[in-house]
Amino acid sequence: MSFPNPLHRPYPDDVYTGEGGEVSAWLRRDDTEPELTYKNGGSCEYLATGDQTNGLYGLYRWSFGETESGPDPHFHRAITESFYVLEGEVRLYDGHEWITARTGDFLHVPEGGLHGFRGRDHARMLLMFTPGAPREDYFETLHALGYGATMTDDERVEFMLQHDTYWV
């Protein structure tokens, strides 16, 4: 084998240009309370927001309630979305069909890729968006709607467009 391997793409350009490294890591403990708990008993935890990662990605732990919930098929024009099942079973729409994903299964959806998800029985998964769009407002608005906030049809259309969500 010769180095470098021409079949692999190169590393990106340096972002950090200092000499000795810096103290910049942060830790979110597992026992931290979820940022949002939905009326159905599910929750969303902000593990790493786009703001925290300087827009590189957003990572969230999604826990389903007892009853099934989740969005119908849709796509995003500007962001990718990835799913990693931590516990239980989650039904994922892969653009062709609804498949049952189990603990350890992973699905990546590029920009424009049709997808959806459904879960219940306290299944848990990681959701990752790249780049790190401000998804917190999306999750928080859904939370508010679940607790009685209202939105007109026109406001809903504008909200979905603002959050790069296109229903099919």
TrEMBL record:
Start and end residues of each Cupin type-2 domain: 68-127
InterPro entries: Cupin_2 (IPR013096), QDO-like (IPR053146), RmlC-like_jellyroll (IPR014710), RmlC_Cupin_sf (IPR011051)
Protein name: Cupin domain-containing protein
Organism field: Nocardioides aestuarii
Upper taxonomic lineage: Bacteria, Bacillati, Actinomycetota, Actinomycetes, Propionibacteriales
